[in-house]
Structure to design on (410 residues):
């Protein structure tokens, strides 16, 4: 609070006219006269049927917090509120002829009673303890209350962590309707002259506007998340885990590590899903976040990989006394007749066989058992198929994720 008070005092003293020549006695006389003529609870209008025009301008100094999970939107700043007090007009010639710029405590002068219309918890009255109002001889009054304002904000995390959040600050003239206080906007954007950058969010834009059905001032501010931290610590590990999942089929079936490797990656993806879900609100409106959908897709793919790994191991360790069915035999033989296989045979590469190692036809040795297929051959064939299938599925899942992010950001 001391920080905002210091800013307030610097602004106040910075506005004192350099031609100030009034004596102390003249200022004291004017102060006593103004106090005797001021009424704190009566609007400063000669005709109370006339609405008091109050001008607003907001200076943003810092974004303190924007928590999507709890819906907390907290900013620090101060207002520049102006109106004319017709009861506090004076003639400078009656007080020594000096250009007097008075500072009246708020306890001695009328100020608009303002509250936050969308507080985060309890109601918040916009005021500054022991603050003053700057007065000029024509009755113009300027008040600059500063504080830390906490509002409720419904976050949209559809494209987290590449999201932008737009939150509102609603200011209500409490106990005054539109016939008593007329809100004037002096600047239709937030003034960022004193703004300090937030490490997690970039300030994008803002707008000030009047309410259509409620006599209120709305201050809408948009901030964009800085995604670098989340890219390195969330998105990149998720993509890497998905790629590692495919390599389970490259492990030797006899190593005994396939199931443990695939289940470990499945649990890792589940842990990342828990971490991400803890930082997001428990809502699906307007839609689930893109990273949440991707984690569900990766978890499903990883679960299917575990199932396929177990089925492959069952086939690999099947008793060779049981003959391979004709369907599997045709599939394996067809894969052996592919161009890469023929190229390896023509280059004189030896091909492993369940009953031993045979030389290729280029060496002149007949290959009488080329149609003999074992269950281990079927298992190796399935491993190659699974690598291709899950690589395509994972590529499409990642491509869909990034296309959804790009469409949402643009």
């Amino acid at each position: 609070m001391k920080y905002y008070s210091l800013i307030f005092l610097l602004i106040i003293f910075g506005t004192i006219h350099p031609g100030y020549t009034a004596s102390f006695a003249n200022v004291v006389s004017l102060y006593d006269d103004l106090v005797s003529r001021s009424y704190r609870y009566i609007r400063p209008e000669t005709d109370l049927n006339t609405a008091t025009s109050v001008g607003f301008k907001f200076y943003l100094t810092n974004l303190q917090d924007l928590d999507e999970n709890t819906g907390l939107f907290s900013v620090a700043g101060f207002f520049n509120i102006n109106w004319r007090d017709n009861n506090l007009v004076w003639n400078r010639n009656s007080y020594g002829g000096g250009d007097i710029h008075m500072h009246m405590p708020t306890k001695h002068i009328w100020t608009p009673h303002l509250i936050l219309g969308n507080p985060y918890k309890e109601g918040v009255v916009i005021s500054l303890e022991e603050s003053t109002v700057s007065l000029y001889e024509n009755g113009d009054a300027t008040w600059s209350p500063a504080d830390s304002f906490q509002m409720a904000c419904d976050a949209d995390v559809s494209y987290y962590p590449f999201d932008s959040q737009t939150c509102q600050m609603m200011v209500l003239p409490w106990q005054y309707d539109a016939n008593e206080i007329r809100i004037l906007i002096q600047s239709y954007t937030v003034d960022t002259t004193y703004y300090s950058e937030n490490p997690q969010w970039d300030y994008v834009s803002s707008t000030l506007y009047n309410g259509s059905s409620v006599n209120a001032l709305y201050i809408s501010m948009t901030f964009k998340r800085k995604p670098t931290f989340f890219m390195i610590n969330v998105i990149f590990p998720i993509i890497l885990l998905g790629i590692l999942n495919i390599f389970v089929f490259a492990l030797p079936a006899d190593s005994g590590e396939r199931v443990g490797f695939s289940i470990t990656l499945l649990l890792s993806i589940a842990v990342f899903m828990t971490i991400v879900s803890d930082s997001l609100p428990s809502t699906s409106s307007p839609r689930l976040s893109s990273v949440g959908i991707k984690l569900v897709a990766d978890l499903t793919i990883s679960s299917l990989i575990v199932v396929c790994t177990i089925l492959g191991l069952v086939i690999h360790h099947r008793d060779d006394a049981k003959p391979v069915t004709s369907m599997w035999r045709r599939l394996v033989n067809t894969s052996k007749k592919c161009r890469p296989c023929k190229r390896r045979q023509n280059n004189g590469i030896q091909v492993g066989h369940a009953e031993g190692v045979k030389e290729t036809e280029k060496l002149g040795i007949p290959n009488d058992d080329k149609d003999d297929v074992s269950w281990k051959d079927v298992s190796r064939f399935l491993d190659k198929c699974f690598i291709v299938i899950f690589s395509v599925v994972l590529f499409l899942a990642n491509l869909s994720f990034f296309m959804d992010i790009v469409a949402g950001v643009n």
